[in-house]
């Protein structure tokens, strides 16, 4: 039996949850504050003036010179880490108290031995999304095992349906907010590109001035371009890494559910056929 994994929730659904919308708003504010008060601290600049060059080797001042897109880039970076922590916590709870592979192996052995009640007790001990789905299948197994008024094929279908319905209830929680990583990856790249373009415009404007080119303006423009590129690409890379990491963890949990569900159905079918 193969359970169907639902697609990741849309961005609008994530924002409707309230948590995601609040995090995005708060971290944009935090990004602005960091840019203005931390990166823009007068101590980071020659003469204590943020309009001057950064003190040599002072990276805070250098990033401040990236311009007004830097606060947004910082906010996106903070979002990546915040939602990574939130997803890690949620998936840890979904996994339950013990190792999922070991839990599935115990369930398969207990089901194969006909110890359904003990298998249900193992689910209660394990807790989490995987255990909830497996428990639903086991309870239906118990309910139908001594029912002789329903055909075997229909019993199997009913067990499969219970497992699939419980999975569909658990999956949205597992996949929630994953779409934000994909969105941040795209937005951060475009933001970095926009900052690059604006910085290069500023650099070439300095070169186009009458008389000798403004070397300070040229350096500032190129610096702004490179800083925004670095922040955008770096944030995008982290978002993609976290997205793939959490997707693989969800796939592993889903595989465990499929494996346990298959064992339950297979054992139920064999047991029922043995009675006839």
Query: Multimeric state of these chains?
Result: single chain
Question: What value does the Rg take, in angstroms?
Answer: 28 Å
Biggest sheet features:
none
Series of secondary-structure elements, N-terminal to C-terminal:
HHHHHHHHHH
**Percentage of residues in strands:** under 5%
Category from helices, strands and their pairing: mainly alpha
**Poorly predicted segments:** 1-9
Number of DSSP strands?
Answer: 0
Cα(first) to Cα(last) distance is 24 Å
Mass-distribution shape: rod-shaped
Mean pLDDT: 86
Portion in helices? over 70%
What's the helix count? 10
Structure commentary:
The protein is mainly alpha-helical and 276 residues long. Helices cover 78% and strands 0% of the residues. It is built from ten helices and no strands. The longest helix is centred in the last third of the chain and has 61 residues, at 215-275.
Task: Give the topology.
Elements: H1 11-16, H2 19-39, H3 59-64, H4 70-95, H5 100-112, H6 116-126, H7 128-145, H8 152-175, H9 178-207, H10 215-275
Helix pairs in contact: 2-4, 4-7, 4-9, 4-10, 5-6, 5-10, 6-7, 7-8, 7-10, 8-10, 9-10
């Amino acid at each position: 039996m193969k359970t169907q994994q639902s697609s990741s929730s849309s961005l609008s659904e994530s924002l409707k949850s309230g948590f995601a919308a609040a995090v995005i708003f708060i971290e944009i504010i935090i990004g602005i504050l960091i840019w203005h008060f931390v990166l823009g601290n007068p101590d980071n600049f020659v003469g204590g003036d943020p309009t001057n060059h950064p003190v040599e080797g002072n990276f805070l001042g250098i990033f401040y010179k990236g311009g007004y897109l830097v606060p947004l880039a910082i906010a996106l970076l903070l979002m990546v880490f915040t939602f990574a922590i939130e997803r890690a916590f949620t998936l840890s709870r979904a996994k339950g108290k013990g190792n999922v592979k070991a839990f599935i192996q115990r369930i398969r052995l207990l089901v194969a031995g006909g110890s359904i009640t003990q298998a249900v007790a193992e689910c209660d001990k394990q807790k989490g999304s995987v255990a909830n789905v497996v428990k639903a299948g086991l309870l239906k197994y118990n309910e139908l095992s001594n029912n002789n008024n329903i055909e075997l094929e229909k019993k199997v279908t009913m067990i499969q349906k219970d497992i699939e319905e419980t999975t569909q209830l658990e999956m949205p929680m597992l996949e929630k907010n994953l779409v934000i990583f994909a969105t941040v990856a795209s937005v951060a790249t475009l933001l970095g590109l926009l900052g690059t373009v604006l910085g290069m415009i500023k650099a070439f404007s300095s070169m186009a001035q009458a008389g000798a080119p403004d070397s300070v303006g040229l350096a500032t423009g190129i610096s702004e371009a490179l800083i925004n590129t670095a922040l955008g690409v770096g944030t995008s890379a982290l978002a993609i890494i976290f997205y793939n990491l959490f997707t693989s963890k969800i796939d592993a949990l889903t595989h465990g559910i499929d494996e346990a569900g298959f064992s339950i159905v297979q054992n139920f079918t064999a047991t029922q056929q043995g009675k006839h």
